Every structure is written in C-alpha cells, then in structure tokens.
C-alpha cells in the first residue's frame, strides 16, 4: 500500500462516520429517550441474624422494602427488565445483609460456569455497589455467580479495581425458574462515617448471560461520564458503628529451587538445589472508623505469576504487570496520577551495572541478583466524612550484592543496592459533580552515597453540574539529590472538553521538561517533549442496522522537543469498534505519520536524532461470542514505511474452548515480522591509549529482519467455588538478522558504514515459563496454595532459523524450577472474641 493512498483512506473513514452520524440522528428521532429519576431504598434493622444459605425463608425478609424494576444498560440501554429481579436489604449492629431473587425462564437459561475468585467467566452474576460516603466517586462492589463464586472490587476516579479483596459471606442457590443470592457484608469489610444516621450511595446489577444483557436498579446511562455518580440511595441506616477492625494473616512457606550451574573450566552444566522454610505476617488494623493500617512483614512473593519476558530492541525498558498481592490490593489511592510504578520496589538493583565497570572486565560474575528483596511494607489509607482520602505507603528494601571472581580465585562483593526506603503520600479531596483535587508525593531514600529522589504532583478534575463538560489537569516537580547537587524537572498537562453524550470532544496539552524524571518510583518512557492533542468521538449506544453499539473517534497529536525547540512528531489517528447483534465484536484503526519524525531516543546518545520515515498503520480485530463453547479472537496489524521495502506485519489467533462449567482451555499464537527494519546496533568509540575520547563516537544503525513468535497455553479446572487448578505455559522466540550497516549522520540521515564487530550483532532469543498453581480457600480469607514454576531464558548471537528447533532446544536446555507450598490463615479479632466468649 503506497503512502499516497493514505488521504483517500482517511476521507473514506470520515465520510463513513458522517453517514453513520446522520443515520443515527434519523433513528433517534424515532427512538424513545429514556430518563429515570434517582431511586432510593430503605434498609430494615433486624434483631436476629439471617442464615446465609441462599434460602430467604426467614419471615423478616418479607418485611423489607423491595428493589425491583431493573433497567437495561446493555445491549440496548433503557428498557425495563422482562424477568424480574427482587432485592431486599437488612442490617444489624454487625453487618448489612442483601437478599436477591433473579427470576428467569428455566435453569437452562441461567449460566453458571465455575471460576476462581474475582474471575468472571461465562456466567450470570448479581452485584451490589455501596458508596458509603456518598461522594459519587468512590465505592465498593460485591458480586456472586449462581455457582457461588465471589468477586469484589473498589471503585474510584481510577476506575474499577478487581485486585481488592474483602472477607465476607455469601451463598447462591438455584431454583426451578430463578436463582437466589444472599450476602452478609460485615462492617469490618467496608469503611463509613460515624454519623448517627447514614445515607449511602446504592446500586444493584444483574447480568443475564444467556442474552448478554446487563441491568442496573438505578439507571446507568452509558452516554453519561462516570459510574458512582449514577447510583441510587440507601436510607434508614441508624446507629451503626464501625467495629474494631483487627485481623492477622500469618503464613508459612516451604520453598525448593533447582537451578543450573556451569562447572568451572569444563563447560558442563550441573544442577544445584536450595531449600528454604520461612514465615511472615500480614496485619490489618482499623485505626478509626475511616482509616486502616495494612502491614506485611517478611513478604513472600515466590508464588506470583512469572513475567512474560521478550527481546527488547527499543531504547525503553520493558514494563511488567504487577502480580504481587500486597501491591495490588487497596492501592487505588496510590495509583492516582500514574506516579507510582510498584515494580520499582523489589525490582532491578539501582547499581546493577557496576559489574560492567572496566575495573572488573577480567572478572567472572559468580552472582548478580536481578531483583531486590523487600523487608516490610506498610499502607495507611481511608477517607474522612468530608470526602478527604488519605493514603500513606512505605516499603523498605534490603541491601543487595553482586559477587565477582578474578583469575586467581579471589572474590569481591559489589553493593548493587543500598538499604532503600520507598514512600508515597496521597491526599485526595472528592468534590461535587464527579470532581476531585489530589496531591501526591513520592520519595526514595537510599543509604550511603547513592542518590535520593522526590516527586510532588497535583491533579484535578472539575465538571459541571450535569457532568457534561469537564476540565482536568496535572502538574509535577521531580528532584534528584546527589552529593549535594539537586536536579529539578517538571511536567504539566491541561485538558478540557465535552465528556458525555453521543458526541464528545477533548483538547489537551502536555509538557515534560528535559530534566523531568519520575522513574525512581514511577515509570515514564519519554520526557523533554511538548504535545498537543485534539480528539473527537461519536458513539452509538443504541442498536441500529446490524449493530448493537458503535464507538468511533478520530484525532491528531502534534509534538515538539522541549529543549531545543525542534519538531518531533505529527500523528493522525482514527478508531471504530462495535458489537453486532450476533454478539460478534470487531474493530478497525488507522494511524498516520505523514511527515518524517525526529526520533531523539533510538540513537541512545544525547543530542542525536534519527529521521524516522513517513509511515501508516492499519489494525483490525474480531472477537466472537464468548457464550459459545468455542470462541475465537483474531487480530491483524500492518505498518508500511516510505523507505526501501520496510514494513511490519503481525497477527494473533486466540481460540478458547470451554469443555464444561469446570474445565476450560485458552491458546494464543502471535507472529510478528519486520522486514527491512532499521534500528540502533552499537556505538564505536575512538580513544587514545589513556582512554580519552578523540572525537564523538559513531552511532551505528543496522538494516535487519526481525521475526518473533509467541505461544501461550492456559487451562484451568475448577473443582468448586473454593478450589482450583491452573496451568499456564508461555514461550517467546525472537530472531534478529542484520544485512547492512549505516552511520547515523548529524542531520538524522543514514550513510553506509563498514562495521566489523568482534561478535555478530545477530540475536536468537528464547524465553519460556511454565506455572502450575493449585489453590484451596479452605476458610474465609485462608488459603493453601501449591505452585510449581519452570523457567528458561537465553539470548545468543547464533541464529537458529526454525521455530521447531528453538522450541526443542528450549525444552532440552537446563532450566530453573521452583516448588513451593504456602499456607495463609486468616484470624479476625471479633470472630475469635465471640468464639472465646461462648461457654
């Protein structure tokens, strides 16, 4: 596809969008517009606790007010449910109780696939949402499926956080033409004010999977920005008090590791084994009715899911997902503004590159840990009656050393990580109309001569009364303290637009100075830039033609260098995606870079630039109906450049098969091919005998062919709603073959270059992970888990051209494996007190 076709493609997209807008406008003239008043429900105080068994047979349930007449949110928003849902709420001095009956046609129409906790599969579910401070921004969500699987989440201006877990009781039961859900949510699981009379935000949700319909008790209009601001109210709560919230979760862990070791002087590989028995403790303490202290002592992260490591040819670090529970649960406050990247804590030692110093070039590396060890972590978080959220997070990471050995066998230890303290403090004030203002401070202090870092940021969002228009912004100052010298950097962004309705528009500006660096506790790939963006969207929330919904947007980004003030990039983009009436979803996107980009990062040398060629990208995807036993996701990406025959093509095929409600498999195959790719290879230095640079180094680029293949296979067998077995295998193979080399000129162009390195720059990379996890939640908050992990990673300069040979080599090669057993037991002070008080 030639570049001169880009403009016609863009025009066709815009014309199509205009036609769809006109068609929707015509249809809206014939379509009923839905508008519902805010609902309220009164809770009933009881003296006798109902039994949580999924049978609402206590007479007190019939005395409570009924919440019914749920309103459809998807696929066509607005109509009242045909199969009624009835919900009642009771409360006493210890907990709030929810009883719900979901009427249906028959048991066959009630989908009930088993899953792990917080895992929504192909199933119906019922949920309750509580905004205990009525700030219309923050809330709790509790859910259950007909199979009895629990789910819970926190809601904030950051969105939905499924990593949050609470200890609560629930039960579900199937009847002939309905299913019943019953909850007991103890006050210790949530936070609320100390007012004598409480009014909470409230909503209920029902998912009817057989028809892919979602219903809310209080209407949630998808055209309105925000979620908690569209809930109803729970009234009648009087004289309830937050209990003493104190719980301990001690753990004991047995760990065995088997890893390969090269025998000195022989090249042969043997395996060594390491055993470890350890223990630790997690503590939760309610400081008062609003604030909670969470602490972990000697945490054990040996059982977290393995990282998907790939060959990284970019100038930027690879970002990994957070899988450690302590850094996932209840961190919605700390993640505001995007200043906190929790993988920094326990990540790569800050001075890991010490082993590359020329002083140690003749030394053999005996040990060089790639991760640091966390000693303890503490979180204090909560929200006051006035809507002020306060969060303080602190973690301490211990010292780390690399061990080197010279030719005579003398060993030397290098401190690659000093004792380090990480701290973040957040003050988040909720305002009316789904608005807020937030102050964030992050601080990293290292023992000894290593540098310290600090960042202070502020963000806000102000919306009008109807939440139709909003202004948002962010600003931050970063500081680095090193041997009496302070380096300052800053950033700010401002945006404004129409955020609700079918048509939405937003304009924004962001600036990051050349010294702005939040990466000691956050993550940022590029600084030293100034960008302006305009985005327009038109969304169709109601069915039309063969579609259930359609979302479209188009925009442009213009970016310049901060210092010096040079042009950097200009991008035009467009996206369209939607769901058909047969519940197949599809999307198409286009990305145009119509002028040469000044890439200041690929050269890896300050002040140098690479003239990145004009290019365009087309991306498409299709996803079939997940209700069916066999579902399929397919994605295709094509990128063409106005340079030689340079082009990228990748595709992904991901089938998933559900054998029954307990056993399921998912497989993903990804293939990427970059033809005539151009990228950084190395720098050639010119030095005198004393090591002084004679002139600037040459920056070498290479013309290369890059191929990669990813295979992921996962499966799970769910024994019941408390016990599961999961298996996940991942293999990545990438190869890089260079054909020609070039010298980067100071104007960004490339000239042929005779490059004769000591070692071939070609690369052959293999990464393999196998994780098998058995989990049994044998009591509320208590778990036994058994984990076996296998891992292999290799990056060599001899290319093995065939995937089959690489995969076989990976399986035959010496691998590291770990086996661990971990037992956590949840101890709640109030429960223990009641048990001890019984005669």
TrEMBL record:
Domain called DUF5916: residue spans: 243-835
Signal peptide: 1-23
Location of the Carbohydrate-binding domain: 52-232
Annotated Gene3D superfamilies: 2.60.40.1190
CDD domains, per the entry: CBM9_like_2
Keyword DNA damage: no
Pfam family, one: DUF5916
Keywords recorded for this protein, A-Z: Signal
Protein name: DUF5916 domain-containing protein
Organism: Pontibacter rugosus
